[in-house]
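Predict the holo structure. Ligand: 4-oxobutanoic acid.
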Amino acid sequence: MMADSALGLLRPDTLDSQDGIGVINPADGGLIAHARLYDIGEITAMIEAADAARHGWAARTAKDRSDVLRAWYDLIVDHAEELALLMTLESGKPLAEARAEVKYGAAFIEWFSEEARRAYGEVIPSFATDKRVLTLRQPVGTCAAITPWNFPLAMITRKVAPALAAGCSIIVKPADATPLSALALETLAHRAGVPDTLFRVTPARNSPAAGDLFCTHPLVRKISFTGSTEVGKVIMAKAAGQVKRLSLELGGNAPFIVFDDADLDRAVAGALASRFRNAGQTCVCANRFLVQAGIHDAFVERLAAAVAQLRVDNGINASSTMGPLIDDRAVKRVSGLVARAIEEGAVRVGGSATAPEAGSFHAPVVLAGVTAEMAIASQEIFGPVAPVLRFEDEAEALRIANDTPFGLAAYIFTTDAARQWRMMEGLEYGMVGVNDGLISTEVAPFGGVKESGFGREGSSHGLADYMNVKYCLVGGL
Ligand SMILES: NC(=O)c1ccc[n+]([C@@H]2O[C@H](COP(=O)([O-])OP(=O)(O)OC[C@H]3O[C@@H](n4cnc5c(N)ncnc54)[C@H](O)[C@@H]3O)[C@@H](O)[C@H]2O)c1
Ligand SMILES: O=CCCC(=O)O
């Protein structure tokens, strides 16, 4: 019944039990609904209609676009419970986390409704008395976005809101596992006054083919991709054919560094929030814990005790603090990494919270005795496992932390202000959390360096990602 009221947010034509994809609840394997899938011809038509719609949208005043975005934000807030329920059902995350994601995702729409009115150009002091130098900021045009399943709502709003604020049109292909919250967002946007063809959500019959279409259709001027580094590289290579503008928000291998002088309570609370949020399936999750020798044993003991308190259960149950992984394949991959680490000498610490037998659950795990060479310390785990490595001094911590092709987020826990600055400056990452395990907010620029990608989402930089800077010279004055 509850699911029916949440599914009521979707347009009936986006649900299709004959030919659509079955959306499965990872907590119990149950079927939630069938989402209609679009083929390449239909997605091509959407791109062309979006491109036709964008000129009228861009010609409207910034205030007008801002008001429509604000109305979309208000509708999301009004329907927060249904959206959270859809997300819990299709992604498995506990309801409390799904509610937090609705707030977080909506905050990008509110933020960019305000930023829409501040897309200022510049008048630059001229190099000649009879000439003036200025810049205009203009929308990049029709955009395409490809999004993952781990944050099915927020990964969409932080692309669509700045695109619409800038005056662009945008087509979003959501992850195959989580089309429902994306489709609900689309309905609410249209109800708020976003023109129907300007923003479309298109679950695709063939995701790689849809990606190819975005990379090769001449009307698509920009692609914003959030997902794995592996697929990001494919898109980057294909988009090179038309030199398309790109934002790539890719995978990470975040170090979480605890120094001897850290506040231990803060470090353990930060570790729990950073590593076990969304069952460890977060791109900015702490992926490896580097802990200085003097605090190592106390940290491991306290972390293991806190992890044993996690309530692993179907996210729909109010007592659940950790839900399932997205599917059985993910469970197999994560348990394989844990088994291999133990074979290589890592030790499982503490009792573990138990996980339900049915559904795609994986119990949370703390591993000590991990070394930088082990696969568990060099790959993105994307699961509820905390591998702990011991280090002796700051130089060693920095060397291990930077010794990775990834560069998304890093965390340090230290009360020494000078060390905080040395580490903030020395870490080769797009984002650094100091004495805090949760860094995500719409007001800050979210994004990586190295193989974690480029482009920034949130903040004023997030709007700039959807605008071109045009330099104009006025002579003969
Ligand atoms: N940096 C960030 O902001 C950020 C945020 C969330 C997730 N992620 C990353 O996403 C990954 C987990 O998400 P995932 O498993 O959905 O990633 P994924 O790369 O498998 O899929 C992401 C999206 O790409 C689509 N896709 C898959 N193959 C494609 C292809 N060949 N061409 C075009 N599209 C294709 C998928 O259908 C999905 O919509 C992790 O690596 C995580 O770190 C990064
Ligand atoms: O998974 C990556 C995005 C999570 C976040 O925005 O905090």
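The chain has a mean pLDDT of 97. The pocket of nicotinamide-adenine-dinucleotide (ligand 1) is lined by residues 146-151, 155, 173, 175-176, 207-208, 211, 226-228, 231, 234-235, 249-252, 283, 380, 382, 408, 448 (CB under 6 Å).
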